[in-house]
Amino acid sequence: MKQLTAAAVLRLRPRSKRYEVRDRGGQGLYLLVLPSGVKSWSLRFRRPDGRTARLTLGRADLSGRHGVDQPTIGDPLTVAEARWLAADVNRQRAKGRDVVVEQHRARTDTFAAAALLFVEEHARKTRRWRETARILGFAYPIDGSGEPTVVVGGLASRWAKKPITEVDAAAIYAVIDEARRRGIPGTAARNGGVSDSRGRLVARTLSKMFSWLTAHRRVDANPCAGVWCPPAPAARDRVLTEAEVKRLWRACDEAGDVFGPMVKVLLLTGCRLREVASMERSELNGASWTIPGSRTKNKRAHVVPLAPFVIRIIESVPVIEGCPYVFSTNGRTAVSGFSKLKRRLDRATGAPDWRLHDLRRTAATGMADIGIAPHVVEAALNHVSGAKASVAGIYNRAQYSDEKRDALRRWAKHVEGVVGRHR
Asked: End-to-end alpha-carbon separation of the chain, Å?
């Protein structure tokens, strides 16, 4: 291959696998072409200890602009800029500097690098890691694999090169206030006006990240300490009445063959929204459904006995060939769009001030009302408190399998009677 030109770089087409093209115009300089079409420059060389190394210089800039005099690593690079950087790195290497170590140190000291490290090494082990990543300014592919993209206008973009040690309390407060008033950086606000919940999400996410960075000695202190955070709303005690359950059931019948059954299963099992929405057919085994610990709030696998009424509802959902999810509209991902669904249900039911999570409370309260013991209700809902909390919970490992099955059957029978009486 001869020296690459801007036109030659532009003509290179992606293949099914990534490939490299060497540029004779720069010592050790290569152009990497990914299957996605992304092209980036990298430099190959040997480190002072003799090990081979590769240093990513930056994405290929195909805009046709003129280069700058002294480009920096990490910026979009024209052919000329990539060659200049390659020559500069090679000059530094000739002086005995380990550019790999220096670049790694420089990158991990920025907010963007520290945030990505937090997501990869900590947040991805939690249930809502995608939301955490999005708040910090990263978007991952649907299947969770591959490299994330930096959200335009997000924190990782805004503070890409800002040293992590320079993110102070004033900057934290400014971002929290911005999220409350205008929306989370890089994300369009779903509703207008001031939203304490948005500010609280940003405040808690940044605080968790800096606490983790402090524990891992990346920073000396958490700059979020002492910064105002919007207070949590008062604990809810909303429980749907039987008349509201009846109207909700009718609304579910009109909501379609995916959303309607999903909401009914929420009410009849008392499970959380994400647990039900992401239900996979492989998790169903006859009259039981096993939710893996990776999807439960307390990280414990939860076996949910399914009443015949619930089984009939699940079986009514059309099967999409090749789709692992019970509730899906596109055959690739679990159902989503809950805000839109909630608005439809609100219009159909006319029920004031209720949320989908209130169905879990309604199930718990309803089971207690029909005479089911509190510890059995907690077991049925995979809720650890009361009799199974603290030290007692360590020794009390009873699963109450038979009691759970009886409780959920009685609750389903009760709901079936309620919606039948009000038809």
From this structure: 77
